[in-house]
Write a structure and sequence with these properties.
Radius of gyration: 11 Å
Structural class: mainly alpha
Distance between the termini: 31 Å
Largest sheet: none
Number of strands: 0
Order of helices and strands: HH
Number of helices: 2
Helix content: 55-70%
């Protein structure tokens, strides 16, 4: 099961650590799994995870 703590998420969930589009996509997928795990457990995802997700999406759009 996916970890539900942001301190257990990989470095790829931080946009500045991603050097190319594949890194960004890995981070986005990891955060999607995190959000799904939180929903399944009935927990609210952290604010940090939403910020990380939005920054990754912005970086993905810039790299396309």
């Amino acid at each position: 099961m996916t970890n539900t703590k942001t301190n257990k998420l990989s470095a790829y969930t931080i946009a500045k650590n991603c050097s190319d589009l594949s890194d960004v996509n890995v981070g986005i997928e990891e955060l999607k799994k995190y959000f799904a795990a939180c929903e399944k457990q009935g927990k609210t995802p952290t604010t940090t995870s939403y910020i990380r997700f939005s920054k990754l999406v912005i970086k993905r759009d810039k790299l396309k």
